[in-house]
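To assess whether ligand presence alters the predicted conformation, the chain was also submitted together with iron/sulfur cluster. Input:
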Amino acid sequence: MTDLIEVSYTGDLLAHRRCPRAWAYEKHIGIHPYEQVQAMEGFLVHHAMQWLTDQHRKTGHHAGRDQLTQQLERYFLVLWARGIRTTFASKMETIERVVGHLYQEDRDEPQPEVKAAVEGAQHEEYPLRSVRRVKRELYGGKSKVLLTGVLDVVVQQKSELVYPLTWRWTDKVRLEGEVTETPDRAAAGDQEIWDYKGTRLRKNNARDDYVRQVATYAALLQDRIGLPKRCVLFFTNEKPGSKRRLLSIPIDQEVVEASINWTLAQVQELRQTVLQLQRDPLSVEGGDLTKRGLPLGDRVDDDLQAQCTACSQRFDCSTYRAHLSKGRRPGTGSVPPDVDLLNVAKN
Ligand code: SF4
């Protein structure tokens, strides 16, 4: 038996924080969701940014809107064949929405922040792998953790760029902070780590986890490229021109060291979930890990609800059932449609 725990930052660590039960059943029992409803836009955005970067590198010019649209039409079919779905009505509606968020309305060229990432890209889809030694007794008999991740892009700025929003660390040890309207000014030559998020900037646990994710990526990359000047989250689903598109996150030695400690503490929790699953699979509860102390019905927020509605485990999930039953009159007897096995229209 291996002495190593391999943990992907997004596929394991963040998924476990979003819902330990769904993560454990998928990763360790092999029950996969039959479709991933909200993932389509995120995949399309990542592919679009990667493809635009490749095109710019090959030709020295930015690809036009029509070229990107055609490329995404092809990639949409690949994703559809893999079971990735969209909440929007049609293929073209989804693609136009993604392209509309990346391109300027009145000119056939990308938005300024997209150009900054494309022109300054040094390394894209940068694979991260780092082994850390841990205390065997704290990690259920394992003595090494292999952290893996894929960083979207390392950017070296070609010209000045102003980030309207900056993350302010309120507690660097616990990696907590808040978004402030203090502008941060990048200079030409600044090295930065960018991560694309196909969502909007909202005040929720996912936002804070994204900040910790890029800080950890900076820590894992430190030996190879040194400390970046800052990390940047690019929320591609915010409207073009909105100051909420880019969030600058200052990075220093204290933050990167804390991010590794925080991440290893999360791996410890994840390992506990695995051991619990092996002892008693039915005892692993659903819901946001950070809301574990709350009543069952309060552990599902809007983001998680979008996952629950397509989750293969929802029919016997006491957390989701409790959430759906909130506000329903007691004694009405009917099963909420989302978890009703006889609701053939949906299920
Ligand atoms: S239904 Fe929701 S809370 Fe329950 S296991 Fe699935 S994702 Fe988790």
